Amino acid sequence: MMNTQPYTVLNNEIQMPLLGLGVYDMYEAEAKAAVLKALEVGYRLIDTAAAYKNEVEIGSAIRESCIARHEIFVTTKVANPDQGYDNTMRAFDTSMQKLNIDHIDLYLVHWPVKGKRKDTWKALEKLYADRRVRAIGVANYLIPFLYELETYANIQPVVNQIEFTPWLFVKDVMAFCKEKNIQLQSYSPITRGKKFGDERVQQLCKKYDKTPAQIILRWNIEHGVSTIPKSSNPLRIEENFNIFDFTLSKEDVALIDSFNENFRICEDPMDMW
């Protein structure tokens, strides 16, 4: 099952797949099996984090797969307790050791921790300048954090990973990132299934002969938003990847845009402001 998937060119000119596998809340054998299955299906972006405590298993799966390392885009993130300049540098070394792969493609600030944001970003800039990582970015940065970042960043983030769904359509962040050439990436894109029963989604499923997850993920792609749905279920991993054989009409994209109700699955980053 090797559908052709789109790539995006990041602002430092490296390529990244628009669709990836998220591995939050997966441990040990489950995490390893999910990554192996995803790579077999055709995923080429794997998103982990130090906080997920599965970097060892993710790295093991990547090494054991039959996929050339340069074809797989690997993201990990500095955990909140490890932020600050020196701590971040050490945390990166630890992630490298646990993943046990020759390079990390993208290193993100996981959350905008108050009092640590500038020093943490400066550490990421150092890692990038020293060519220890191919790209650097942020996660959970809403507009105030992005404006603040501009006041001290010498290197612009290539990615901003946030919670982004039809029911949390953060249009201002999407517009800001497009203007600044920062690739927006969505986590928890399918609301952990909590909105699959929405009658409007069900009607779209009938129209396109697709599942709720496929409709929502395709909506992300139509907006040029990278998305990293999490699943360890082999059938769901396949289902989530099978979104490149159809497109949503402009009218249906606009309809889905109208679903916003500020519905969050995860914490509100503004609580850290």
UniProtKB/TrEMBL annotation:
Lowers pKa of active site Tyr (site feature) positions: 77
Keywords attached to this entry: NADP, Oxidoreductase
Binding site for substrate: 110
Domain NADP-dependent oxidoreductase residues, every copy: 26-261
Keyword Phosphoprotein assigned: no
A molecular function GO annotation: oxidoreductase activity, acting on the CH-OH group of donors, NAD or NADP as acceptor
CDD domains found in the cross-reference section: AKR_AKR1-5-like (cd19071)
Catalytic machinery residues: 52
Taxonomy, superkingdom: Bacteria
Pfam families: Aldo_ket_red
Keyword Secreted attributed: no
Family to which this protein belongs: Belongs to the aldo/keto reductase family.
Official protein name in the record: Aldo/keto reductase
Organism: Panacibacter ginsenosidivorans
